[in-house]
UniProtKB/TrEMBL annotation:
It comes from the Eukaryota. This is DUF3128 domain-containing protein. The lineage of its organism: Eukaryota, Viridiplantae, Streptophyta, Embryophyta, Tracheophyta. InterPro entries: Pants/Emi1-like. It holds the Pfam family PANTS-like. It comes from Quillaja saponaria.
């Protein structure tokens, strides 16, 4: 949904929702460049199911009234968590020890 949300949130209200970015992302997902990147990074080819879901969601939103679609998009945007999670120093310390504590044992 990220490409759909970006496309719709950047457009002014009253403008029609475009599914072109979702379709372009799906098209690129099946490209040899993307598939080889995924295979190199993860070890498996991408089945592009997330891109298909984004395209279907966008097409479903286009069947709704523009005010209703705008409300749905705003609700989704508010529901997505922020990219950064803030921790207290104690939480950060315990998380660091949990992830990298085994390195202290090597010394």
């Amino acid at each position: 949904m990220s490409s759909e949300n970006e496309a719709s949130s950047s457009s002014p209200p009253g403008q029609r929702l475009s599914c072109t970015p979702c379709f372009d992302a799906l098209w690129f997902c099946y490209s040899p460049v993307h598939q080889m990147q995924q295979y190199y990074r993860i070890g498996v080819l991408d089945n592009c199911s997330e891109k298909w879901n984004d395209l279907f969601d966008c097409l479903k939103l286009k069947t709704k009234r523009s005010t209703e679609a705008q409300e749905i998009l705003e609700t989704r945007k508010k529901a997505t968590p922020h990219i950064w999670t803030f921790r207290t120093p104690e939480e950060a310390s315990s998380n660091w020890k949990e992830i990298f504590g085994h390195l202290d044992d090597m010394e």
